[in-house]
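Appendix B. Raw example, untouched.
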Amino acid sequence: MSENCELCKDEFEDVWVKNYAYWNLQVHTNQYYLGRSILKLKRHVVDITEMNMDEREELFNQVLPEVKNALDELFNPDLYNYASLGNSCPHLHFHVIPRYKSNRTFNGRDFVDENWDSHWKPDYENDVSQETIQKLRENMEEHLN
């Protein structure tokens, strides 16, 4: 644990979806892409090469397949982007970014992937309500268990 690390502080409990042995899954608060999530390693390391074998096996053999299957069932994305950059928060974590050729509707709101066929990084924050974030978290949680 690092005192100065935003992800070590676990300040995002309201968006946690599932705790694994080595990883935490949470809904990203910017839902520019419907279902965008973050996988955070529970211990503080910076580089992907610092993962031990147990952390790797859980990530690739359990966590990523479960997250992908849940999002497939909920929203049927056309593609997934996975990103681990660590530029603004140097703690090993992965963004799971579902991509969509056509619009998806969730909780009465249309989600449009305006960057389809382009870089995944949105230029702005999405103004999704806290209610929608919580409903998304609950739906993902149901599909993971």
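End of appendix B.
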